[in-house]
């Protein structure tokens, strides 16, 4: 087995040939697609996956090293999960930073002065094309104006600020499960040892998974 230089590892865009495609289900925000894909040996296999517009999430860190978190009911997993503010990219080509600012305002009525890209991930690439950009937001303060009116699951949300170290312990103990929260707090912890937070990518860094207008 050949050994790879860790510094040279990079995911590569690749498109295997698709002989047919259909959409057996279309929902309000996402759909399910079935592609018939040509395998390396020439056979054709059906691949079902969720078609998703993409999402943004915000790890908002205050001056006391606390992370802004929300608790929200998630029906598919029958849990009320602790999460970081997040939301869909509702408009094709939407600027992800603008969407992240909106979600932080709507879910927590907070604004931030300093924004960086923390990490980009595919949430479940074996069954969905959802791509998420997680931002780090610092320099927090209360947002101006009236609070955003919430409804449905969001009407039952709790908002808290929790020490980063406590969230890391909760993730490693198996007490916290939301993918953006777990990925975000572990990435932030790692970033502090790999060049520091100011070395993170700028907030408008390119995002090939979801190209956007500047």
What does this protein look like?
With 214 residues, this protein is of the alpha+beta class. The protein has three helices and eleven strands. The chain has a five-stranded mixed sheet with strand order 7-4-9-8-11. A hairpin with a 4-residue loop joins strand 1 (18-26) and strand 2.
Determine the fraction of residues in helical runs and give it as a percent range.
Answer: 10-25%
Q: What percentage of amino acids are in beta strands?
A: 35-45%
Q: How is the biggest beta sheet arranged?
A: 5 strands, mixed
Residue windows where pLDDT falls under 50 for at least 5 positions:
none
What is the number of helices? 3
Elements, N to C (H/E): EEEEEEEHEEEHHE
Give the overall form: globular
Strand pairing plus helix content: what structural class?
Answer: alpha+beta
Number of strands: 11
What is the end-to-end distance? 43 Å
Estimated radius of gyration = 19 Å
Mean pLDDT: 93
Spatially, the strands of the biggest sheet line up as: 7-4-9-8-11
């Amino acid at each position: 087995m050949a050994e790879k230089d860790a510094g040279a590892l990079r995911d590569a865009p690749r498109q295997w040939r698709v002989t047919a495609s259909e959409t057996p289900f279309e929902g309000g925000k996402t759909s399910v697609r079935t592609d018939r894909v040509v395998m390396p040996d020439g056979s054709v296999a059906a691949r079902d996956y969720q078609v998703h517009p993409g999402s943004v999430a915000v790890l908002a860190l205050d001056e006391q090293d606390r992370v802004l978190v929300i608790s929200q009911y998630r029906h598919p997993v029958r849990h009320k999960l602790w999460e970081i503010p997040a939301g869909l990219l509702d408009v094709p080509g939407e600027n992800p930073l603008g969407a992240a600012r909106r979600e932080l305002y709507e879910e927590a009525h907070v604004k931030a002065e300093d924004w960086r890209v923390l990490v980009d991930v595919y949430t479940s690439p074996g069954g969905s094309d959802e791509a998420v950009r997680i931002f780090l937001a610092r320099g927090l303060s209360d947002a101006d104006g009236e609070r955003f009116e919430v409804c449905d699951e969001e009407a039952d949300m709790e908002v808290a600020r929790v020490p980063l170290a406590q969230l890391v312990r909760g993730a490693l103990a198996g007490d916290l499960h939301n993918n953006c929260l777990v990925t975000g707090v572990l990435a932030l912890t790692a970033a502090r040892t790999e060049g520091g937070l100011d070395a993170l990518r700028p907030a408008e860094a390119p995002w090939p998974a979801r190209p956007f207008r500047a």
